[in-house]
Amino acid sequence: MTDNGDATPLVQMEGVNKHYGALHVLKDINLTVSRGEVLVVIGPSGGGKSTLCRTINRLETIDGGTIVFDGRELPAEGKALAALRSEVGMVFQSFNLFAHKTIRENVTLGPTRVRKIAKDQADKRAMELLERVGIASQADKYPAQLSGGQQQRVAIARALAMDPKMILFDEPTSALDPEMVQEVLDVMIGLARDGMTMVVVTHEMGFARRAANRVVFMADGQIVEESTPDEFFTNPSTDRAKDFLSKIL
Ligand code: ADP
Ligand code: MG
Q1: What is the pTM of this model?
Q2: What crossing angle do the helices spanning 119-132 and 148-160 adopt, rounded to 10°?
Q3: Residues 166-225: pLDDT tens digits?
Q4: What is the recorded membrane topology of this protein (predicted)?
Q5: Ligand 1 within 6 A of 89 CB?
Q6: Is the CB–ligand 1 distance for residue 221 below 6 Å?
Q7: Whether residue 51 has its Cβ less than 6 Å from ligand 1
Q8: Which residue has a Cα nearest atom 6 of ligand 1?
Q9: Which ligand is nearest to the CA of 52?
Q10: Running DSSP on this structure, what letter comes out for residue 161?
């Protein structure tokens, strides 16, 4: 989908630092995300995972280092920043759908307002995407009429509607009832297979094993380990990761 044969990484973070006041939340982060790669980020709460994601689409500024996205340093403001935001989709734990808009409108809003795509064309694409996430029959309902799993699948369709170069998922299944987790993970696994570049913060080890190319273990603002899912889950190299895994597995 996004793999156009370009060998340069889609995201290159070098020496990235971020503070909230006295709190040092990102400490010298060096990380690249290749095109078409699925990177899973795991680690204890408060370790900086959400902040890391939010720096990639510049929802958070950084106070040291550089982030290069698709060959260009992240823009600070203006039209270039708006363009960047539309190229990096984001799916949150809390769905964040517009409550007073229908499912279809939630998906067409970005394309018509930001991308200036004609309404009938945006509608057609929205229905294709809703079909893809298995929600087409719900298109004219409102978010509150859908289950959490369905709402999260709409959020994924909404992200896809902007034709992003990558999608950041920040604990997309953490707020869901257990029986709805898999339907969302299945959609994500489909995207991964189609070649979407994805950074996924999750504790879903089944997903990491099946879909991740790489696992990054983050704690206290640092990347503590970076390895293949197989290595990480069977033979983590640090005590920190061993301890974390013993608590969640
Ligand atoms: P994670 O997603 O791994 O749980 P976060 O990136 O959310 O971690 O948070 C990292 C640290 O930064 C935590 O100590 C958190 O309390 C703090 N933090 C996050 N956002 C803010 C903010 N807007 N202002 C101040 N501190 C924050
Ligand atoms: Mg978080």
Answers
A1: 0.95
A2: 130
A3: 999 999 999 999 999 999 999 999 999 999 999 999 999 999 999 999 999 999 999 999
A4: Peripheral membrane protein
A5: no
A6: no
A7: yes
A8: 48
A9: 1
A10: T
